[in-house]
Amino acid sequence: MKKLIIMFILIFNPFLIGFESASGPIDMTNEVQSISMISTVLCYGTVTNTEETALVISNKDIQNNPILDQWDPYYYINIDGIPTPLPDNYTWNPEPQCVMSYTEQILADNGYTEFNGVQSIDTANKVANQNTFASAEQFDYIASETAMGRITFSEDLLLDGASQGSNALDRMLCPFATGDKGFIPAYCNVVEMGGSFTGTDVSAVTGANERHISKAADIPVTVNYNIALAGQGSTAAWINAHLMEGRTPDVFGAVINKGIYEPGFINWDWNNGIGDFRVSPDNSFMLGNEYLYKEKCSASGKILLFSKSIQVKDTPEDL
Fold first, then answer.
1. Are both 105 and 143 inside the same structural domain?
2. In this structure, are 145 and 255 located in the same domain?
3. DSSP-derived pairing of the beta strands 260-262 and 255-257
4. Backbone dihedral angles phi then psi of residue 64, each to the nearest 5 degrees
5. Does residue 65 lie in a domain region?
6. DSSP letter assigned to residue 273
7. How far apart are CA 120 and CA 110, in angstroms?
8. Model-level pTM?
9. What is the full DSSP assignment across 221-271?
10. Which residues neighbour 95 within 8 Å (Cβ) at sequence distance 6 or greater?
11. Alpha helices, DSSP H only, in 118-223?
C-alpha cells in the first residue's frame, strides 16, 4: 500500500499535512438523497449556528453490524453434494461499511457578525472531482467595546471505514489496475480532523469535505479540512488518524465453509509447524500496515495569520 506524508511550516503557523493510504469507496443505494443549505447573517447582537450530520452506508445490511458479512460464495453444494457454479454475473462481494459525521457550532455574542455558510450532502455516486459531503463557511466578528463580546467556534469531520476486502476485477474501472493478487485487501481506517477559535475579533474561512460513495474503486476516498483566520484570541486545528491496511496472502482458490465454496486465503505466518497453514475465507486477513498519527497546532494572542490544510486520500494499490 502507498503511504505519503507531506508537511511544511511557514511563519505564523500555516502548514499542510497529507496522507495517502488504500481502501475504496462504497457504491450508492438505488435511491439517493441530497440536502443543501445556504446561510447568510448580518447582525449586531447574538448569532448562533449549529450543524450535525451523520451518514452510515454499506453494500449490504447495516442493521446486522457488527460483524461485517463475510465473503459470498461463488460455488454452492447442490442436493447431490456436487459443487455447482453460481451464475457468471455473480461477483464476490464482501461487506464494506463507512460512517461519516460532521459537527459545527458558532456562538457570537455582543458584537457585530457577518456569517456565510454553504453545506451539501449527496448520497449518489461521485467522481474524482465531486464530494459526498461539503461545507464552506466564512465569518467576521468584532466584539462590542462596552459589552465584553466574544465568539466561539468549533468544527469536526470524521470518516470511519472498514472492509474485508473485495475482488479488484469487479470494482476497478482501469483495465491496468491489478490490485493485490487480484484483490483489494481488507482495511480499517478512522480519520478525524477539525478546527476551533475563541476570541474578541476574527476573520475566518473554513472548508470541510469528503467523498466515500462511488461506483468504481478507482475513485479515491478523500477527507479534507482547511482553516485560515486572523484575529485576537485562541485557535487550534487538529487531525487524529488510525490507519490499518491489509495484504492479500496467497489465494488458495476455494475452501468449503458450511457447505459452500468460498475464496480461500493462505496466511503464511500462521504455520502450525508441520506445513499446515491457515486457509479460511474469513479470518486469514493479513494486517500489512498499522499507522497512528495525532497532531494539533494552536496559536493564542494577536494572530496575524493561522492557516492549515489537511488531506487524507485512500487509493487502491497499483493505480
1. yes
2. no
3. antiparallel
4. -105, 15
5. no
6. S
7. 30
8. 0.83
9. EEEEEEEEEEEEEEEEEEEEEEEEEEE--EE-S-EEETTEEE--EEEEEEE
10. 58, 59, 60, 65, 68, 69, 70, 163, 164
11. 168-171
Answer whether 129's CB lies under 8 Å from 224's CB: no
Same domain, 134 and 262: no
Residues 6+ apart with CB under 8 A from 257: 73, 280, 281, 282
Q: What is the pLDDT along the chain (319 residues), one digit of tens a residue?
A: 333 333 333 334 445 666 555 567 898 998 999 999 999 999 999 999 999 999 999 988 888 777 776 655 544 445 555 555 555 555 566 788 999 999 999 999 999 999 999 999 999 999 989 999 999 999 999 999 888 899 999 999 999 999 877 777 777 777 777 666 677 888 899 999 999 999 999 999 999 999 999 988 888 999 999 999 999 999 999 999 999 988 776 665 554 555 555 556 666 665 544 444 555 444 566 788 899 999 999 999 999 999 999 999 887 654 4
pLDDT computed for residue 287 by the predictor = 82
Task: Classify residue 64 by its DSSP letter.
Answer: G
Cβ density class 259-288: b for 16+ within 10 Å, e for less: ebbbbbbbbeeeeeeeeebbbbbbebbbeb
Residues in Cβ contact with 244 at an 8 Å cutoff, skipping those fewer than 6 apart: 187, 188, 189, 287, 289, 290, 291
Handedness of CA 175, 180, 62, 88 (dihedral sign): positive
Q: Are residues 136 and 270 in the same domain?
A: no
Q: Say whether both 241 and 256 belong to one domain.
A: no
Q: Are residues 178 and 305 part of one domain?
A: yes
What is the H or E stretch that residue 189 is in?
strand 187-211
C-alpha 242: how far from chain center: 11
What range defines the domain where residue 74 resides? Answer: 70-94+250-283
Under DSSP, the state recorded for 178 is -
CA distances in angstroms from 57 to 27, 29, 63, 162, 244, listed in the order given: 9, 9, 11, 11, 20
DSSP-derived letter for residue 47 is E
Residues 156, 242 share a domain: yes
Q: Cell triple for residue 149?
A: 463580546
> Grid coordinates standing for 73?
460464495
